[in-house]
Amino acid sequence: MPTTPDMSMDMTTVGDTGLLDTLQHQVAIFARRAEQTRLGGVGQVRNSLDRAAYLLLNRLDNEGPMGVKALAASMGIDSSTVTRQVAPLVEAGLVKRTSHPEDGRAVVLQLSPRGAARLTEVRTSRRQWMAELTGDWTAREREEFCALLTRFNSALSARMTPPAQPPAVS
């Protein structure tokens, strides 16, 4: 019987339960290792940016200056969480707060030159770390792993995104 993504599935009927047990166990180990190392890179840079800081700086670098609400929406987190996570980045000089050019009351967050340099340093270190971890993999294996991990993360994001609320009826 075909199923749709909206239907509940009994995972014991989908493929090999042993494989699913191994998958969930490996994901748990990965999450623990990722937290231990923060997928940090090599040497001094390794643990220099926590996950939240790295993801915020990366988003500002990729998407440019934006307000707190836009940043929160693009990351799928709450505005208060972004505000709390950005505060130490502003204090460290990695992010600049400026007034919105069209609405002086609104705040725009922007990667500072120091933040851009730090992000480049951390990215380089993390790239080196990934190269070392997958050094005995073929280019094709790296591509496949990246594609599958991206697909896995997309599925997680889709599951964690709350469904759109219908408009209120007055």
Q: What descriptors fit this protein?
A:
3 strands, 58% helix, 170 residues, three-stranded antiparallel β-sheet, mainly alpha, disordered N terminus, 7% strand
Point out poorly predicted stretches: 1-9
For the biggest sheet, the summary is: 3 strands, antiparallel
Q: How many beta-strand runs?
A: 3
Instruction: Tell me the Rg in angstroms.
Output: 20 Å
> Oligomerization state of this entry?
single chain
What is the molecular shape? globular
How do the helices and strands follow one another from N- to C-terminus?
A: HHEHHEEHH
- Biggest sheet, spatial arrangement of strands: 1-3-2
Helix tally?
A: 6
Class based on secondary structure composition and strand pairing:
mainly alpha
What does the average pLDDT come to? 82
Helicity range: 55-70%
Distance between the termini: 41 Å
Percentage of β-strand residues:
5-15%
Explain the overall architecture:
This protein has helices at residues 17-37, 51-63, 68-75, 79-91, 113-133, 139-160, and strands at 66-67, 95-99, 107-111. The chain contains six helices and three strands. It is mainly alpha-helical and 170 residues long. The protein has a three-stranded antiparallel β-sheet. Helix 3 (68-75) packs across helix 4.
SSE arrangement:
Layout: H1 17-37, H2 51-63, E1 66-67, H3 68-75, H4 79-91, E2 95-99, E3 107-111, H5 113-133, H6 139-160
Antiparallel strand pairs: 1-3, 2-3
Helix pairs in contact: 2-5, 3-4
Can you summarize this structure?
With 170 residues, the chain is mainly alpha-helical. It has helices at 17-37, 51-63, 68-75, 79-91, 113-133, 139-160; strands at 66-67, 95-99, 107-111. It has 6 helices and 3 strands, in the order ααβααββαα.
